[in-house]
Amino acid sequence: MGAVLMRHPRETRFAHLWLRSLLPGHNPFNDELPWITFRAIQWLLSFLKPEMRVFEYGAGGSTLFFAKRVSELVSVEHDEVFHSAVAGRLAKQGIQNCRLVLCRPEKDSQAALNVAYGTETFTSFEPRHAGEYFEKYVKVIDEYEDGYFDLVMVDGRARASCVRRAVDKIRQGGALLLDNSERPAYETARRLLDGYPCIDMFGIVPWNLVPYQTSVWRIESRGNSAGTVFGVHG
Question: What is the mean pLDDT of the chain?
Answer without folding.
Answer: 90
